[in-house]
Amino acid sequence: MGGRLTRVFRTFNVESRARREISKEKPTRAPRHPTSRLDELADHPEIREEVYRKDNRLLTLLKDVYVESRDPPVRVKDGGGEHLPCKLEEKRLTKLGHLGDLDVKKVSKGKISIVEAVTLLNNHKLHPQIWTAEKIAVEYSLEVKEVNSLLEFFIPFTVQEFPKETKKAI
Question: Does the pLDDT of residue 82 top 70, yes or no?
Answer without folding.
Answer: no
